[in-house]
Amino acid sequence: MAETDWQDPEEAPKKRRIPKWVWWGCGGSCLLVTIIGVVVLAVGARFLKEFLDPEKAWAGVREVLPYDERPAGWEARGGTIAGVGQYYLKPPKPAPELVLILRFREPADIDSLFDPESPHNRGVLKIGQIRDPRPGTIELQGREVRCLHFRNWMPDDDDKEESDLPSLRIDVTGTGGVPAVVQINGQTDEVTNERAQELLAPFDVWRGK
Predict the structure, then answer these.
(1) What average pLDDT does this structure show over 132-158?
(2) How, if at all, do strands 180-185 and 164-171 pair?
(3) How far is the first Cα of the chain from the last one, in angstroms, to the nearest whole number?
(4) How do 75-81 and 164-171 pair as beta strands?
(5) Residues 52-110 pLDDT 10s
(6) Residue extents of the structural domains in the chain
(7) How far, in Å, CA of 182 to CA of 25, rounded?
(8) Contact at 8 Å (CB) between 47 and 60?
(9) CATH number of the domain at 20-199, out of 1.20.5, 3.40.1000, 1.10.1760, 3.40.50?
């Protein structure tokens, strides 16, 4: 996968495709498609500028994944509109994964993300479609919570089999916390529970929850 481009929107070319990392991160949620539609109609370039502002992104990340000090070497982008948002976290190289935070208004809003048969997981025009779902649980920082291993389809490639990406989705809402899901997208190797525990170790996931 090509290196992610975090260009400032004022410096970006006027005509460009949606970056491939956006599709890679959208797998299984379609949330970003909704956000983009709302943004284009409502605040357009202003939101895009905030979406690409790492300082604003880290503030939003902290509401879902608390931390004392910003994890060294990590990068963040993303934003929230009306309580619904999506954030992208890139661990330090050479880690190949992309960590997504999907934020919602109500805890019930995330239930469909863990139901392999839900319309949500069938995607829209194949975007967001998941394959080989394996519901289960994960022990994360002393708590056992629901998770879903699956492979998500990424557009842009002609060979559907080769574009299936291994992913792991984890409910990090807790008790009284912001309704949220962490989704870890890999490239080739399965995202194991152990790998998820390692990636989320810099964050105090259950603080205040």
Answers:
(1) 88
(2) antiparallel
(3) 36
(4) unpaired
(5) 788 999 999 999 999 999 999 999 999 888 888 899 999 999 999 999 999 999 988 89
(6) 20-199
(7) 11
(8) no
(9) 3.40.1000
Closest CA to 167 of 133, 126, 137: 133
SS3 readout for the chain: CCCCCCCCCCCCCCCCCCCHHHHHHHCCCCHHHHHHHHHHHHCCHHHHHHHCCHHHHHHHHHHHCCCCCCCCCCEEEEEEECCEEEEEEECCCCCCCEEEEEECCCHHHHHHHHCCCCHHHHCECCECCEEEEEEEEEEECCEEEEEEEEEEECCCCCCCHHHEEEEEEEECCCCCCCCEEEEEECCCCCCCHHHHHHHCCCCCCCCCC
Asked if residues 120 and 129 have their Cβ atoms less than 8 Å apart, the reply is no
Candidates 123, 84, 117; CA nearest to 101 is 84
State yes or no: pLDDT of 191 exceeds 90. yes
